[in-house]
Amino acid sequence: MSKKISIIGAGMTGSTAAHWLAERELADIVLVDIIEGMPQGKALDLLEAMPIIGKDVTVTGSNDYAATEASDIIVITAGLPRKPGMSREDLLNTNADIVKKATEETLKRSPDAIYIILTNPLDSMCYVAMKTGGLPRERVIGQAGILDSARMRAFVATELGVSVENVSCYVLGGHGDSMVPLTRHSNVAGIPLDQILAPDRLEAIVERTRKGGGEIVALLKQGSAFYAPSAAVAQMAEAILKNKNLVVPASVYLEGEYGLKDIFFGVPVQLGAGGLVKVLEYDLNENEQAALEASAAEVAQTTAELTF
Question: Model pTM?
Answer without folding.
Answer: 0.96
